[in-house]
Design brief:
The chain is an alpha/beta fold. Helix content is about 25%, strand content about 25%. Pfam families: ADH_N_2, ADH_zinc_N.
Length: about 350
């Protein structure tokens, strides 16, 4: 590994914020180049995903998450795509130098990862960075959890984010008759309709969400893919058609609240309405290998055929990652945000 630099850079939490995190709450640290042992691989990260829900881990006030809360001094985690540069002691069945892999140790230039915890990418998608899109979540939520049917009216809250920017397109490809999204600005709303095939968009802050949704979906909503919660979930309940199926994927209304640490997302719902309309309300059930494989097959085909777009922003330089995170929290970007270290 003599061709490698002596140090690697990584983004660490410098201080837990009181309220929403800003770039100043993070620091860029230089560390000795990590050295893999047998059964591990050294990966040079090419891209990593900057996602708003990381605020919950940064806040340190949440329990029962798959990744533990962060403490000052901890490097940040996140989905990454990288190239294996060393795999000592590997056999013919494991990752080899030159392989592109996905893993969870983003926010650093180089990472040592157990070989069993990297996923070889192959050529399923035409652009490796597309693996950082969150469409697999949307696909699983819409096909398994909500069971979208031809002609359904689908409402996607947080439609301009990493999940939502693909969810509306996927819903359309699965046969939805009308697709409505919510977002935080008129400009993003216009892009949802012009670029991603949404039929209409409601805008947070442009009037009561319930009234806007009622105008956009006068016949009601069959499916909700909810990334936000709060008043948007409440509005969807009011607009629910009989037998509607709602899937809770995220809770950004609480996670990105200025007060607190982002570990709760309370909302008051009309449970009587849920009963009268026979609404199914369930949490996203996660991803299994069968669904991941099905998504990659369909996603790759849709991308190559030009039937789906992958909206994303690429930001160069790991030193700019903290600023990118602050901008994601502030809602400045459209689609998936990735950093190229």
């Amino acid at each position: 590994m003599s061709f490698l630099p002596q140090v690697s850079r990584e983004v660490r939490l410098a201080a837990q914020p009181e309220g929403l995190p800003e770039a100043r709450h993070f620091t860029l640290a230089e560390v000795p180049m990590p050295v893999p042992a047998a059964g591990e691989v050294l990966v040079r990260n090419r891209f990593f995903h900057v996602f708003a829900a990381l605020r919950t881990l940064v806040g340190g006030g949440v329990r029962d998450t798959p990744v533990p809360p962060l403490r000052p001094g901890d490097p940040l985690p996140g989905p990454a795509v990288g190239e294996v540069v060393a795999a000592p002691g590997g056999d013919g069945g494991g990752p080899r130098p030159g392989d592109l892999v996905a893993h969870w140790l983003g926010w650093r230039e180089y990472a040592v990862v157990p070989a069993a915890q990297v996923t070889p990418l192959g050529d399923a998608l035409p652009d490796p960075v597309a693996h950082l899109g969150q469409g697999a979540i949307a696909y699983a939520a819409l096909t398994r959890d909500a069971e979208v049917r031809p002609g359904d009216t689908v409402f996607v809250s947080g439609a301009a984010g990493a999940v939502g920017s693909l969810a509306g397109q996927v819903a359309r490809l699965l046969g939805a008759g009308r697709v409505i999204g919510s977002t935080g600005s008129p400009d993003k709303a216009a892009r949802l309709v012009a670029e991603l095939g949404y039929d209409a968009a409601v805008v947070r802050g442009a009037g009561p969400i319930g009234e806007q949704l009622g105008e956009a979906a006068p016949d009601g909503v069959d499916v909700l893919l909810d990334n936000v919660g709060g008043d948007q979930l409440r509005a969807a309940v009011a607009a629910a058609r009989p037998g509607a199926r709602f899937v809770l994927v995220g809770a950004l209304s609480g996670q990105l609240a200025a007060e607190g640490r982002g570990g709760t997302s309370p909302v008051e719902l009309d449970t009587y309405r849920l009963i009268l309309r026979r609404v199914t309300l369930r949490a996203f059930q996660g991803l299994d290998e069968e669904l991941r494989a099905a998504w990659l097959r369909r996603y790759g085909g849709w991308l190559r055929a030009g039937e789906i777009a992958f909206p994303h922003v690429r930001i160069a330089g790991i030193e700019n990652a903290p600023r990118a995170f602050q901008e994601v929290i502030e809602g400045r970007h459209f689609g998936t945000v990735v950093v190229e270290p």
